[in-house]
Specification:
The protein is of the alpha/beta class. The protein has one domain: Rossmann fold (3-Layer(aba) Sandwich), CATH 3.40.50.150. The protein contains six helices and seven strands, in the order H-H-E-H-E-H-E-E-H-E-H-E-E. It has a seven-stranded mixed beta sheet, with helices on both faces. It is globular. The termini are far apart. The model has no long low-confidence stretch (mean pLDDT about 90).
Length: about 180
């Protein structure tokens, strides 16, 4: 079952408790997001990760489907200027420029994507060869088998798995694009 957080409940995505329990800089480090990277963030929501990405990255392409979330995201990242480009679209149909991103971060979002195969192709196209893809999913919604299936889908289109973790609350996989 997929639970999409509606924009009117976005305060649960960005609050002091979540900030205290989520080490965002650790997530960026684990995801291999270096200073000066160009990052594709899929499922930006109201900007919980977008703002720390913008502090570190040279450029962030923040993809978000929900208009209400986009409105909140724009307010949160306005002071970053053109370092953040917000794309209100489904990642499967965004039309992001090929080979434009060094890394892609999907934090608790890929399980919500309807057409995963097409979305995976879009993400693959946007990432440069050697680029990193980090997928974090909630353990309560995505079991090990589903996470393995997601990783295999990306492996089948030219990615190699580099890291994997199955925790109490979060499942994580990092893959590197090896095919052009």
């Amino acid at each position: 079952m997929c639970i999409v957080c509606p924009s009117w409940l976005s305060f649960i995505l960005y609050n002091p408790i979540r900030k205290a329990f989520t080490d965002r800089n650790k997530v960026l480090k684990e995801s291999g997001i270096a200073h000066g990277s160009v990052v594709l963030e899929v499922g930006a929501g109201n900007g919980f990760f977008t703002e720390v990405l913008a502090k570190r990255a040279r450029k962030v392409y923040a993809v978000e489907l929900q208009g209400g979330m986009v409105k909140k995201l724009k307010k949160r990242v306005a002071h970053f200027g053109d370092r953040v480009t917000i794309l209100q679209c489904d990642i499967a149909a965004c039309g992001i420029e090929d080979n434009s991103a060094d890394a892609c971060l999907m934090y608790y979002s890929f399980h919500e994507v309807k057409n995963k195969a097409v979305a995976a192709g879009s993400i693959s196209g946007a990432l440069k060869k050697g680029g990193l893809l980090s997928i974090y999913e909630p353990s309560i919604e995505v079991n090990k088998k589903e996470m393995r299936k997601t990783a295999e889908m990306f492996e089948n289109i030219g990615f190699r798995k580099e890291a994997e973790r199955h925790g109490l609350f979060t499942r994580f996989v990092r893959l590197r694009k090896i095919a052009a």
